[in-house]
Structures are given as C-alpha cells and as structure tokens.
Amino acid sequence: MGYVLSISLSGYFVFFAVSAVTAAIALLGLGIVTGSAGMIALCQLTFAAVGAWVVSLLNVMEAPGGFIVWLVAGGIAAGAAGILVGLPALRLRGVNLAVVTLGFAAAADVTLQQIQFPGSKDGIPVERPDAFSDDRQFFFFSVIVLVVCALGVFWLQRSRWGASWKSVAFSERGTAAVGQSVRTAKLTAFAVSAALGGVSGGLLAGQVQLPFPSSFTPIQSLALYVLAVMSGTQLIDMAVFGGIMWVLVPELLKRFGIPQDWGFVIFGALGVQALTSGTNLGEEIRNAWWKRRGRVAPRSGTTAPVEAAPASAGPGARGLDDRGGTHDGGSSPAAAPSPSSPLAAGTAGSGRPAHGLALAVDHLTVQFGALKALDDVNVEVPAGTVMGLIGPNGAGKSTFVDAISGFLPQATGTMSLGGTPLKGLSPTHRARLGLRRTFQQDRVPPSLTVGAYVRFVARRHVSDAELADVLGFFGCPSAGTRLSTADIGTRRLIEVAANVAAKPSVLVLDEPAAGLSHEEHVALGERLRTLPSTYGMSVVLIEHDLDLVRAVCSQLTVLDFGKVLASGPQDEVLANPAVIKAYMGETEML
C-alpha cells in the first residue's frame, strides 16, 4: 500500500504523507503514556526534537551505520530523556504532571533556539538511506518504519508491560498489591512513548534534511496531545487516523484561505468534546465503520488481546452474576480443579510449611495523629486455614489490611509471612513474597480481558488449562471476555480468581461478596472453604455477612475500636458476650 501511494502521489502530497506518518508514530507513543498509562505528557515533540538532534549530529559526524542506525540511536536517546522526564510522574499526577512536562518542553525549546540543530547553520543536509534517497522512496521507507513501530506497540500492549500500563492507569494501589512495581510501569510507559517520539523526529530530520526548532514547539506538543485525546490513539488505527488529521486539517484551512493556526483551535474544540462526552472522533468513526459491517466495535480503552476461550468454557457454560442469576460464557461454577490439576499441583510443591503460622502479627499499632486506628493488635493465621476478621464498622479492619500489605509504612509492631519479616517492605515486595489481597473498591482495570488480567496478577506463566481451572472454580466468564463488560459482582470474583492463580501463601479477601446476592454468598462460601485444601494457601476473610463467615471460617478474630476483642475457634468467639455486645443492634450479625 505504501509503495503504491509512493508512486501515485504527486511530490507535494508525498511530502505531506511523510508528515502524516511521522505524526502517527509520535501519536503511537502518546497513546501509550496517555491512553494506556493514563498520564499527561505535553512534551512529545520535544522527544521528537531529541531524536532529530541526534540524527543530525551523527550525520555531521558521518557516524558509521547510516541513517537507519542514526534513527535507532535517536529513539534510544529520546527514550532515555523520557525516563528522566518520567521521574516526576512517580509522585505527580494530573495538572501538576502536565505543568512539569510542558515546562520541560518550553525549556528545551529555548535551548534549541540557542544551539540549533547540528549542521543547520552550515547547510549540511541529513543523508537519507541510499535505497530511499528521493522523496517517494523515503515515503516508502517511512511507512516501513511506521509498520515496525505499530507491530512493536501491538506486541508491547499485549505483554506484561502493557498490562501494567493499563493497571496503573486504573489503580496504583491495585497495581502494587499484585506485585507489579508502579515505578517500573510508569517509567517504561514514558520511555517507550519518548522513544517513539524520537523515531518520529529522526524521520522528520530525514524528510526535511535541515530540521529547525520551529517544527518542535511546545504549542505543537500541546496540540498533538489534544489530538491524541481526540483520536483515542491507544488504538493503533486511531494513531494513524490522528496522523492524517495532523496534516489534513491545516492543509484544508490553507486551501480555504484560513490561517493554519486555527487548526489548533479545531483540535482544542474536538479535544474538549472528547473529554466532556467520554467519546472521541476516532471512536465515533470506528463505531460507524463496525456498525456498517454489522459488528460491535471494540471500546477505545480495550487494547489488550481477546484471548481464545478455553475449551472447557464453551458456549453452554454458565457462571454467576450480581443479580442472583447466571451469565453465559464462563465455566461451570460447580467445576473445581482436581487435586491433579496444574494449578493445584503447583501449590503443593511450593515449599510452604504444612503446619505452623502462615501469618503472624504482633503488637501492630497504627496511629493517625491523636487517633489510634489499631492498638497493640495481635493476630495469628495458622497455615492451611480460613480465618475470619470481623468487627463493627470503624473497628479497624481495613486499616489492618492496609498495614499488613504495606500501604501504611507508619505502622509499628512486627509482621512475618511464613517466618519472613515484613517490616519495611513495600506492598510490591510483600505481594511477591506471597501476601496477596483484594480491595473493597473496584481495582480491576476494565481495559483488559479476563485472561490477560489473571495472567498479569499471577506474575507467572499460566497455562490455558490452569486458567480454565481457576476461572471455572469461581464461575467466572471465559478468558476472552472483556472486563469492561462484566458487572461489579463478577469483577470481584475475577479479582479473587486472579489472586488465587498467583499461588500466594496468604490471601486476604476484603469483603469479596459485596455486590453478590445471598445465594451467591453461599456459593462463594463453598469455594472459599476449600481454598486451603485445593490450592494450598491460607485465607483471611474480612466480611460483614455472618452467614458467610460461619460457613467458611474455622478461626475468628474480632476487632472493636482498633483492639482485638476476641480470637479463637469460631464457636467460642461468636458465643463470647463481649462480641455479642459489640454487634448489638447490627441485625445482619445476629
């Protein structure tokens, strides 16, 4: 296609076609950092300037390897700059991050105005590859580069990096809780995005051969960001569409005798429309195209792969939904992995002690100012058991979970997982050691498929058989189902299933039955009760539904006003007068 265009277009339109290709590559990068990772970056053309500057410098130096090697070097240099610019993103979000990146673009623009590009003052043009020396041939070369970049983005979006970008955009706490470094997720997004920007700048240097700072101004970076939002460039085809818009709108304005700067106004208006309505121009065009073909268009936020459903999850399989009914597309909720299944067998040989304590918490205290949310709390979770942690609202249950999972570094006391001290370890490190948790709030990124999410959370290779087993055990939809289509109750089940697939030694479930009907509570209880024997893990269940607690937990610990009110076997704890008094008036606990 690129070759046909290169020989059929006039020289004037070939130049603009190359400009569209370079813009599309830059937009591919913005689609990663903005569309997938959810961060604001207003300096994409500054990264392009880095790539163009490196290409120009190597050209002046007559460095070996030629233009293709220089182009790669420019992308690497821009990626390194992206890491440096991305460091503030570890602490800044939203408008603050936008200010930092725009400030970087402004500072780089002033610097470029002073130093110019190597060879520009002496009129030394950038040498193109010998096989692509004229404009038409260089357009064909630029299309090849675009295809290579698009394939790279396609692969990365479906890798663990891609899943981490989507996860960190939805919830940083949820990302850290599954053992993925938030720092790594953000920096890799910035690095890959900037590298693509550098490649686009290097191509532009080869296109014009004498690049100037006027091609990389902050206002153009801002317009490119708005165009990315407007087009939904986390999708590869929409990045190409955005590249076409980048050159088409100014050209149309020029033909109508309107100043081309009005193109920024048009992009801005469309960007505002996209932000306020939740849809964008690219998505509308995509929907119209798919509707015309009689199919449903994928949502713009879903760039993860649609995995093939496991053979065991055929069209007749059914699972639970949050209305007490069933939904098609999942494995049977009654299905459970056999003792010889890959997932169950994997846990048996994990080296965890069959007896003793899976989790020990001693003298745990958490204080917020004058308020002691937890006061000298001692909790022991025996290996191979389901222990319930209950208490009235405000008793400190959520604070306890945050403290043991590493989200409250001010917590004092000692905590150990299977004898390994947890003091001072980050949430990511604790998750990697085998302490996993779920959340009361929805932390399941909707832009992934069920299978992609389970594999991301598991942090290991999960075979199709293992995936089918764990999804079938919890009655979840098939692996290819997009999480954006799942209701909140189903998403909670998927979150539990994904963490079970990670084979933790201790799994803390924070009200996993929220959003489920009473009947579904009972069904979930049957599954949770067998987790220790089936998957070889210990479970801490935090739940307000006493029926579920009674059905699942052999041991109970009761918190009240941040202190342990009672702890021990279920029957003894529930018969304790102090526990009965603490719950008096809460009819769901009677």
Report on this model:
The protein is an alpha/beta fold. The chain has helices spanning 2-8, 11-36, 44-61, 66-86, 94-115, 135-157, 160-170, 172-177, 182-208, 218-231, 236-255, 262-277, 281-292, 342-348, 397-404, 427-433, 450-458, 464-474, 488-501, 518-529, 531-535, 546-552, 570-574, 577-582, and strands at 318-320, 326-328, 357-368, 371-382, 386-390, 412-417, 420-421, 435-437, 506-510, 538-542, 555-560, 563-569. A six-stranded mixed β-sheet has the order 8-9-10-5-11-12, sandwiched between helices. A hairpin with a 5-residue loop joins β1 and β2. α10 packs across α11 (236-255). The longest helix has 27 residues, at 182-208. It is elongated, with a radius of gyration of 28 Å. The model is unreliable at 299-342, 345-354 and 585-590 (pLDDT under 50).
Helix and strand arrangement:
Layout: H1 2-8, H2 11-36, H3 44-61, H4 66-86, H5 94-115, H6 135-157, H7 160-170, H8 172-177, H9 182-208, H10 218-231, H11 236-255, H12 262-277, H13 281-292, E1 318-320, E2 326-328, H14 342-348, E3 357-368, E4 371-382, E5 386-390, H15 397-404, E6 412-417, E7 420-421, H16 427-433, E8 435-437, H17 450-458, H18 464-474, H19 488-501, E9 506-510, H20 518-529, H21 531-535, E10 538-542, H22 546-552, E11 555-560, E12 563-569, H23 570-574, H24 577-582
Helix pairs in contact: 1-6, 2-6, 2-9, 2-10, 2-11, 3-4, 3-9, 4-9, 6-9, 7-9, 10-11, 10-12, 17-19, 18-19, 20-22
